[in-house]
């Protein structure tokens, strides 16, 4: 197992925090939710009944393990299974087990922005599936994509589960999908999860739990600025607020200042003023339907090979080729 870290990360964090908190309206990127605390809060979110996404995708992969696995199967030289945003690998393990037990010659390459998540996963797999070759890597999607081009000797299957693409607005999603396509050869596949449009209240509830786990997750970005950049945010003075627009399919998270205040961030030599009820936009969680996914694929030069859904049709996993 090898783990490579991106040294650029802290500079990116500083620049993006400066950019976001000096803009109007203010924003921060959800990719910075995921430190040790954020990872563990996200684990808690995935275990909440209201956060249906995880259960639906687990249902899909467990009901169609063989069909999906056989789509992945290579004809000659073996295959690289590359997962972007691997997280804890609970859903992926279903496929890893199937492939291990059915004579696939493959290596598993999980890539995640969270060093902590990648290390935990690699350690866990070393115990649970000792025969599996795991080559883990830490990095951001867009950085890592460049390096995937060097992977072209064997068949490659790229997986992006959890509707992680939903954090990107459509133009960025097209950019991301296009780059994935550019890293693919004709036999390669992309297996990706897209949370579907549904009863708006169901979506809102997934991001608005009464216990405040999602609120803590959202506010963790402030805690992280405090710790890593010497900020003095008081997270209690911010309120988590979620909206869902059924027309665009976009769920949006905000942190709302409940009083006027000044916040100082030492490492940025920056003081940020908040008016009472001023917002920081922190995340989008885009919801999709077949039409939108077909459009995204077309714009990115990808073709949909097949798709799988759960009993309630809350969630879909699509298989793409170039
Ligand atoms: C991991 C990006 C798919 O947007 O649903 C969960 C993150 N944010 N609760 C999502 C998240 C609030 C999640 N993704």
From TrEMBL:
Domain of life: Bacteria
Pfam families in alphabetical order: Methyltransf_33
Alphabetically ordered keywords of this record: Methyltransferase, Transferase
Domain Histidine-specific methyltransferase SAM-dependent: 13-321
Database matches in InterPro entries: EgtD_Methyltrsf_superfamily, MeTrfase_dom, MeTrfase_EgtD-like, SAM-dependent_MTases_sf
UniProt keyword annotation of NAD present: no
Alphabetical list of PANTHER family matching this protein: ERGOTHIONEINE BIOSYNTHESIS PROTEIN 1
Protein name: L-histidine N(Alpha)-methyltransferase
Source organism of the structure: Aequorivita marisscotiae
Lineage start: Bacteria, Pseudomonadati, Bacteroidota, Flavobacteriia, Flavobacteriales
């Amino acid at each position: 197992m090898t783990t490579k870290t991106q040294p650029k990360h802290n500079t990116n964090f500083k620049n993006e925090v400066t950019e976001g908190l000096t803009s109007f309206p203010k924003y921060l990127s959800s990719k910075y939710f995921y430190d040790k605390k954020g990872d563990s809060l996200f684990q808690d979110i995935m275990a909440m009944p209201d956060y249906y996404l995880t259960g639906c995708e687990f249902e899909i992969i467990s009901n169609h393990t063989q069909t999906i696995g056989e789509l992945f199967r290579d004809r000659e030289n073996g295959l690289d299974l590359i997962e972007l945003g691997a997280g804890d690998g609970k859903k992926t393990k279903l496929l890893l087990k199937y492939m291990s037990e059915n004579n696939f010659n493959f290596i598993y390459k999980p890539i995640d922005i969270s060093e902590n998540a990648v290390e935990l996963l690699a350690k866990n797999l070393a115990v649970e599936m000792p025969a599996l070759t795991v080559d883990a890597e830490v990095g951001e999607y867009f950085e890592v994509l460049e390096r995937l081009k060097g992977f072209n000797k064997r068949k490659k299957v790229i997986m992006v589960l959890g509707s992680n693409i939903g954090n990107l607005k459509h133009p960025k999603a097209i950019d991301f999908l296009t780059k994935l396509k550019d890293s693919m050869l004709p036999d390669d596949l992309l297996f990706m999860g897209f949370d579907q449009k549904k009863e708006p209240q169901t979506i809102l509830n997934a991001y608005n739990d009464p216990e405040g786990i999602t609120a803590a997750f959202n506010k963790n970005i402030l805690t992280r600025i405090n710790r890593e950049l010497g900020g003095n945010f008081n997270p209690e003075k911010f309120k988590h607020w979620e909206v869902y627009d059924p027309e665009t399919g976009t769920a949006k998270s905000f942190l709302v200042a409940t009083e006027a205040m000044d916040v100082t961030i030492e490492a940025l030599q920056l003081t940020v003023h908040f008016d009472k009820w001023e917002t920081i936009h922190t995340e989008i969680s885009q919801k999709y339907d077949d039409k939108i996914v077909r459009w995204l694929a077309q714009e990115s030069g990808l073709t949909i090979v097949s798709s799988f859904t759960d009993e309630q049709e809350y969630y879909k996993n699509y298989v793409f080729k170039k």
